[in-house]
Specification:
With 294 residues, this protein is mainly α. It has one domain: Orthogonal Bundle (MetI-like fold). Helix content is 73%, strand content 0%. The longest helix is centred in the N-terminal third of the chain and has 32 residues. The protein is globular. The chain starts with a helix and ends with a helix.
């Protein structure tokens, strides 16, 4: 052991700042939240200290009326945005893989939504969704798709869809770039052989492109799911979880439980549930990346 440490002392020295940062800003908060999830942390009703309450916080969280609704809203949010981002990203990647004039410029422009900070993008969309001055209402009314302006972010029937739209716009460039890299790694000989066999463009896409993209597609899909599970900023900036909790995804439910109801123990318990689900998909992600390397 001493010889190993002596031989790799320099390597450990370079890695140590990262280990300290991860321990302080990641491992400690997770451990603290895990402990809090089994303690009484109701700030408006202090009992002296933070006694151990076992699984009571988890039980109380599950009993909340808005717990179930936030789960269903989150599932809908994940399913729609992940599928939409992947489908749109795949379509854009296929187009960007073609030869046309200005291809490099278009590829650079596609990255813009991904590069724009989430809060900035949301503030722009808030103006665009405005029911009095927003360009989206103006555009839809000129196309005669609307007869009167709609408060997209203020109506419980449209608020979640509007948040999904912003999420898709913000996230599809990542999918496009990742899948474009996968497309460029496909040998051209496969397409030439398919053409010789008389395969149409659709059959080439179905039997050559999609199977060859499967490794990177699985990785991208799992990444999208993991990121969307913990998504918070987009929905919170746009709607704050409203109106009438119509857009209260699970992360906003946790935020409201902690910083509006001051029930930090129950919020920590809910956070552990999110981490558990995220861990499952993270394990699947590592298995997928390992399989892709092999």
């Amino acid at each position: 052991m001493k010889a190993h440490i002596r031989n790799y002392a320099t390597a450990y020295l370079f890695v140590s700042p990262l280990l300290v940062a991860v321990s302080v800003f990641l491992l400690y908060p997770i451990l603290k939240a895990a402990i809090m999830s089994f303690q009484y942390w109701y700030l408006t009703k202090p009992v002296g200290g933070n006694p151990f309450v076992g699984f009571q916080n988890y039980y109380e969280v599950i009993r909340y009326d808005y717990f179930t609704s936030s789960i269903f809203i989150t599932i809908a949010y994940i399913v729609v945005t992940v599928i939409a981002r992947f489908a749109l990203g795949l379509g854009v990647a296929v187009l960007l893989n073609q030869d046309f004039r200005g291809k490099s410029l278009v590829r650079a422009l596609v990255i813009i939504p991904w590069a724009v900070p989430e809060v900035v993008a949301c503030l722009v969309f808030i103006l665009m969704f405005d029911h009095q001055y927003g360009i989206i209402n103006e555009f839809l009314m000129k196309l005669h798709l609307l007869t009167s302006p709609v408060a997209f972010l203020g109506d419980s029937d449209t608020a979640l869809g509007a948040a999904m739209l912003v999420n898709v716009w913000k996230g599809f460039p990542f999918v496009a770039i990742m899948l474009l890299a996968g497309l460029q790694s496909i040998p051209k000989e496969l397409y030439e052989a398919a053409k010789v066999d008389g395969a149409s463009t659709w059959r080439q896409f179905r039997y050559v492109t999609l199977p060859m993209l499967k490794p990177v597609s699985v990785i991208v899909f799992l990444l999208l799911v993991i990121w969307t599970i913990k998504d918070f900023a987009i929905v919170y900036v746009l709607t704050g979880g409203g109106p009438s909790r119509a857009t209260e995804i699970f992360t906003i439910f946790i935020y409201n439980t902690a910083f509006k109801n001051f029930q930090f123990g129950e919020a920590a318990a809910a956070g552990m549930l999110v981490m558990l689900v995220s861990t499952v998909f993270t394990i699947l992600y590592f298995k997928a990346t390992k399989g892709a390397e092999n």
